[in-house]
Amino acid sequence: MSAKTFIITGASRGIGLAISKYLLNAPQSHNVVVVARSVEPLQKLKDKFPKQVEALNGDLTDFSLGQKAVDLALKTFGRLDGLVLNHGGLGQVGNVAEADLEQWKQGLDLNFTSLVAFVKAALPALRESKGRIIFTSSGASVSAFKGWGLYGASKAAMNHLALTLSVEEPDVTSVAIEPGLVDTEMQREIREDLATTLDPQFHSFFTTAHQDGQLLRPEQPGHVIARAVIDAPKSLTGKFLS
């Protein structure tokens, strides 16, 4: 199999970094355009794999970033075979009755509207390559958690975007994948930064999961997602996998 080219967002740490490393290393080495706000981790990847990596830094709520990433992939590697949309954040945590509408708008811009921008930019090349789009979703997309209305709604919208693409884009395979409880910066944020904001029972659940060693290493879901963007079967298009 010849080398393919992929764009990975949220690639500077956690699951996104694990996906990128898998695609670069084994079993078949591929080309990646890594996208994130943080400069240093992406530069380290580029320094280690100078012929296989292009790095793009920026705020993911800058909707021009998607087109820039696609242009960079096509200019450097001549093709685009897959897109992993892995970025996002919790946004405002609190009951809907206390929602700050501007914070909700910012959260939806990051977690959902930016996905549309990347997908729109990538579709022409992905139609040509019969490529794949993998969305990193969440269990919060299908379950209600007190105070997580913004995050859960944005992830539910992500799932529906994958479903919509399955009927609109027959040549592209689109799948949303829930990675499970993973030892990432978001989990640290939940345990530490949101200790006084989250519902106590909810906070206790995440704290106990961490203390009991129940969190997955980023490489575990990362490798699953990486393999999916390489060769997920067409039968999975539109699915939410948990």
UniProtKB/TrEMBL annotation:
Bilayer-crossing regions: none
Family matches, as CDD domains: SPR-like_SDR_c
Keyword Oxidoreductase recorded: yes
Domain Ketoreductase residues, every copy: 4-185
Gene Ontology MF: a single term: oxidoreductase activity, acting on NAD(P)H, oxygen as acceptor
Signal peptide range in chain numbering: none
Pfam families assigned: adh_short
Keyword terms: NADP, Oxidoreductase
Top-level taxon: Eukaryota
Gene3D superfamilies (UniProt xref): NAD(P)-binding Rossmann-like Domain
Entry's family note: Belongs to the short-chain dehydrogenases/reductases (SDR) family.
Name of this chain's protein: Ketoreductase domain-containing protein
Source organism of this protein record: Talaromyces pinophilus (Penicillium pinophilum)
